[in-house]
Write a structure and sequence with these properties.
single chain; 398 residues; alpha/beta; eight-stranded mixed β-sheet; seven-stranded mixed β-sheet; globular; binds alpha-L-sorbopyranose
Length: 398
C-alpha cells in the first residue's frame, strides 16, 4: 500500500468483471469509505473486462479510474494492492493464484473455485502468503441479522444445535424458455444451483452454528436440459437470441441433501432456481436444545428467536428487528427501523476487508473456509452420483 495525500494508507483496488457481482462490489467500494471510518483510503483504480468499449463504459458508470482488457495487466499494476475477482468460476483459480504470486490481497467471489483441487491450490497459495489477505465472498454472513444469529448460538441462547434447516430458493430459470447463461455451463460455473446458491447456505449454516458439515446424502436434478441461446444479459435475466438456437444445460437445476453437523445435529439443505415466487429466499432455521432461530433473507432485517426457558404460557417466537445501533454494522447507516438491503452486506464485506488488510489480520471467510465449503459441495456431487444411500420405495410391482 502507498500513502495517500493525507498520509493515510491508500488501498488500490482492481476488479476483474463488471456484471451483476461487479456492480454490487463497485457500489460497496464506493460506499464503504462514505459510511464507515476506514483506516485507509480506497482507490477504485482499475477494472478489467474483455470488451474495450463495454469495460470503459462500466468504469465510467461504476466509478473506476482506469479500464483494461487483460486481467493480467490489472494484476501486474503498481496501482493495485487488492484484486477483487467477480468473474465466472472458471477464472477464479488462475486470477487468484496470479494475484497472490504478485503480492496482492484477494477478494474472490463464491464458490471459491470450480473443484476441490483448484480450491486446495488457492488455499495453499494463500497460506504460503500470510502477509496477504485472501477472502471469499460469502457475503450473506455480513447481514446484521445473520451476525446476531451467530452471536446468539455462540452465547448458548439456543443450546446445543439439533437441527439445521437451510434453503436457498430462487425462480429465475423456472421458465424453460429462460435462456442459457454461464451459470448453466459446467465448464464456467463448476456446478449449478449447488455451487451458485447452495454454497451460500452451506456457508451460512456453518457460520451461524460454528460447526462443520461432516457428511451428506444428496440428490441433484436438472429439470430443463436444453434452453435457448442467450443474446444478452442484465443482472440474472437474459433475452434469448430469437434465432431458435438452443444449447445444453450442463449443471444441476436443484440440489437437495441431508447432512450431519460436527456438533451432532442433523441438517437439511435445499438449493433451487425453480421455486416460482421465491426470488432470493435464503432461509435458515436452527433448533437447539434451548431454543430456535429463524431467518429469511426476503425479510432480511428480522431474526426470529424462540427461548425455550420462557414460561410456556407466554413463550413464542420473538420477532427481533435487527436495525438497532447495537447490531453489527448498523450504527454506520440509518436510524433504528430504517432497514438495510441486499447491497449493504457487500459494503460490510469491503469494510472488514480493508480493516483486515491494514491490521494485518485475516477476516473470514478465508480461502481455507472456501476450501471447506468446496469439499462439502464435492461430497454432495459424489453422493448424488453414487446414489449409495438412496433407497427406492417399493411399489406393488416390485
Ligand atoms: C444467482 O443465482 C446469484 O446472483 C448468485 O450468484 C449470488 O451469489 C446470489 O447472491 C444471488 O443470486
Amino acid at each position: 500500500m502507498t500513502a495517500s495525500a493525507a498520509d493515510r494508507p491508500r488501498l488500490g483496488v482492481g476488479m476483474v468483471g463488471y456484471a451483476f457481482m461487479g456492480v454490487a462490489h463497485s457500489q460497496a467500494w464506493r460506499n464503504a469509505p462514505r459510511f464507515f471510518d476506514l483506516p485507509a483510503d480506497v482507490d477504485m483504480a482499475v477494472v478489467a473486462g474483455r470488451n474495450p468499449a463495454n469495460v470503459r463504459a462500466a468504469a465510467d458508470r461504476l466509478g473506476w479510474r482506469r479500464a483494461v482488457t487483460d486481467w493480467r495487466e490489472l494484476v501486474a499494476s503498481d496501482e493495485v494492492d487488492l484484486v477483487d475477482i467477480c468473474t465466472p468460476g472458471d477464472l477464479h483459480a488462475q486470477i487468484a493464484l496470479a494475484a497472490l504470486a504478485a503480492g496482492k490481497h484477494v477478494l474472490c467471489e463464491k464458490p471459491l473455485a470450480n473443484s476441490v483441487a483448484e480450491a486446495q491450490e488457492m488455499a495453499d497459495a494463500a497460506a504460503a502468503a500470510p502477509g496477504q489477505v485472501a477472502m471469499v465472498g460469502f457475503t450473506y454472513r455480513r447481514v446484521p441479522a445473520v451476525q446476531l444469529a451467530r452471536t446468539l448460538v455462540a452465547d448458548g441462547r439456543i443450546g446445543q444445535v439439533r437441527h439445521v434447516r437451510a434453503q436457498y430458493l430462487q425462480d429465475w430459470i423456472a421458465d424453460p424458455q429462460a435462456p442459457l447463461s454461464w451459470r448453466l455451463d459446467k465448464q464456467k460455473a463448476g456446478s449449478g444451483a449447488l455451487g451458485d446458491i447452495g454454497a451460500h447456505v452451506v456457508d451460512l449454516a456453518q457460520f451461524v452454528t460454528g460447526e462443520e458439515v461432516t457428511g451428506v446424502s444428496a440428490v441433484l436434478e436438472t429439470f430443463v436440459t436444453e434452453r435457448p441461446v442467450a443474446e444478452e444479459f442484465t443482472g440474472l435475466s437474459g433475452s434469448s437470441s430469437g434465432s431458435g438456437a438452443t444449447g445444453p444445460v450442463t449443471v444441476d437445476d436443484a440440489a437437495v441433501f441431508l447432512g450431519r453437523m460436527s456438533g451432532g445435529g442433523l441438517a437439511t439443505f435445499e438449493a433451487t432456481r425453480f421455486a416460482y415466487g421465491r426470488k432470493n429466499a435464503i432461509r435458515l432455521e436452527i433448533n437447539g436444545s434451548a431454543g430456535s432461530l429463524a431467518f429469511d433473507f426476503e425479510d432480511m432485517n428480522v431474526l426470529h428467536f424462540f427461548d425455550a426457558h420462557e414460561p410456556a404460557a407466554t413463550a413464542g417466537f420473538r420477532r427481533i428487528v435487527v436495525t438497532e445501533p447495537e447490531h453489527a454494522y448498523v450504527a454506520a447507516w440509518w436510524p433504528a427501523g430504517h432497514g438495510l438491503g441486499y447491497e449493504h452486506a457487500f459494503t460490510h464485506q469491503a469494510v472488514d476487508l480493508v480493516r483486515g488488510v491494514v491490521a494485518g489480520e485475516h477476516p473470514t471467510p478465508t480461502f481455507a473456509d472456501g476450501l471447506q465449503v468446496q469439499r462439502v459441495l464435492d461430497a454432495v456431487e459424489r453422493s448424488a452420483a453414487a446414489q449409495s444411500t438412496w433407497t427406492p420405495v417399493t411399489t406393488s410391482a416390485s
